[in-house]
Amino acid sequence: MEPRHLPLHHLVRPAAGNDPHPPLLVLFHGYGSNEEDLFGLTPYIDPQFLVLSTRAPIMLMPGMYAWFEIGFTPDGAIAVDDVQARHAAQMTAQFVEQATQAYHADPSRVVVAGFSQGGTMAALTALTRPDLVAGAAVLSGIVPSTIIDELPDRAALINKPFLVIHGTRDQVVSIAHGRASRDFLSQLGVALTYREYPMAHEINLEALLDLTEWLKTLNGER
Residue 162's closest CA among 180, 196, 189, 140? Predict the structure, then answer.
């Protein structure tokens, strides 16, 4: 499959060097954003990685996209539509699988990462298709524990690297979600790195450094 025929629109940051099968990082943006958002992180990401920044399929309005619709509980907390989220995860998994082939990336060094709703997509992609990814980073996102009974291969998740970062001052996705994600993933036996910082709904310098260093570790660098 040619890159232009992949199921999601995306931006490309080519890998540096001459590796014919480079490691691949796929980025998923948050609710109401677009592929340009996280693409701004690419100057800080290990140049050995081929980076693809994807656009979600649901257009809220021009320039604003979503992976799935969101609702709110009576107390104002964000509620994830599990059916839509699972459907979106099928799409992101399809993209990751086809992009790995189309860009000739190393299938053993494919990493997914996302911010906010995109963090949910990164987590769901890795949890439902652990065969496709070497690790997942969830930045200020929600990992829906309701999918626990539908995980296809729990054994494949043992020691799978996950990075979860959340802000204690996050007023969009509360720190309670970050801690719940931590607890849920810990129960699955993944290789979890968890960090929380006194930040709002954002990626601060500490979080960015955590992400870049974690990626280097996955790519075998020290």
Answer: 189
